[in-house]
Amino acid sequence: MQFSTFIHGVGTGPKGNRDFDFGESREMMRQMLTQEAHPEQIAAFLLGWRIKPETITEFRGALSMMDELSVRRPLPDETIELGYPFDGKRRNPYLFPLAARELWRCGLKAAVFGDDKQPAKDGITVKTICENIDTGEGVVYTDRKAYLKPLHELTPIRMRLGLRTAFNTLEKLPGVVGSKAAITGVFHKPYVKKYVEIFADRYEHFALLQGNEGTPELFSKGRLWVVRDGEIEEYIVDPARYGIAYEKSWERISQDESLQQLREPSAEFLRLARFNAAIYLFVAGKADGIDAAWERLEA
Description:
This protein is about 45% helix and about 15% strand. It is α/β, with parallel strands linked by helices. Strand 1 (about 80-85), helix 5 (about 95-105) and strand 2 (about 110-115) form a beta-alpha-beta unit.
């Protein structure tokens, strides 16, 4: 199938656009990742696909091809996959290096993934954090060059386009290290069902968090959605309930500031990281609830 067929399907307006089936979506993704399609075609399609917009079937077909082209290296240790956006964070430091220390005390590691910065937030990336501080034994970082180099090589095209695309959703949970549990962040409640339909059946334990800047990190009161037996259970989670009064930043922070807060964290920031670790333990099935996980970590 010529790639122009896919462009026609997303670029001719409401009357001419159409949805793709699972097999077509796999082929579309194959041609983009192998760059059998030209850069101009890829950029045009990504923009049109976003506007059309994407369907769950298309997402799942595209993800199936990404899985097929990925290099899988299951880890010997039990992990929970933390799905971060690849465009980074702008206003607050990351919690995962500190939360992972708490998880490792309970025999669980945090699996995170990164690459060069992707559009469109222009934030500090997971890769930057992992390359500039000692994250300890509790973090397992995998660079995208090692597991899906074809997607890494699309970075220049994506950066020139400068917009969020379907890749921003599909890349968050690569699923290549054999994690049985995963959690990622969502901005708005309508996205919960979409993420569950795309990703949940890839893991034994799956959850979504109304996290800071679209990450699986909670800085203030928010919602947690946990998938159990195909049903979505919603929880209200609030650090204040555990005596944590950390004030998140609304101003942009520098890379040095972000790294410094991890190297020399305040007592309150450490407690916030512990609270997030309690969420992860609950999601991974290591505790009956967040309260029980918190008590275990506080002991």
